[in-house]
Amino acid sequence: MRKVADCRQFPSESNCTLTISGEEEEVVRAATEHAVSVHGHSDSPELREQVRSTLTDEVAQHA
């Protein structure tokens, strides 16, 4: 099952609207890199676990 990380779930000064979806490990890696580069967080095992805990299952889009 694909996972989703959505910045809109968290308040930020920039009102970030980025959504990342993919396989769980891909999303954790990309969302962590985004949190560090855009939001100023420090990359750590704790941050990665926090990111992982916020992931939701992707809802299938029907055409």
Automatic annotation (TrEMBL):
It holds the Pfam family DUF1059. Residues 40-51 have a biased composition (Basic and acidic residues). This is DUF1059 domain-containing protein. Residues 36-63 are annotated as: Disordered.
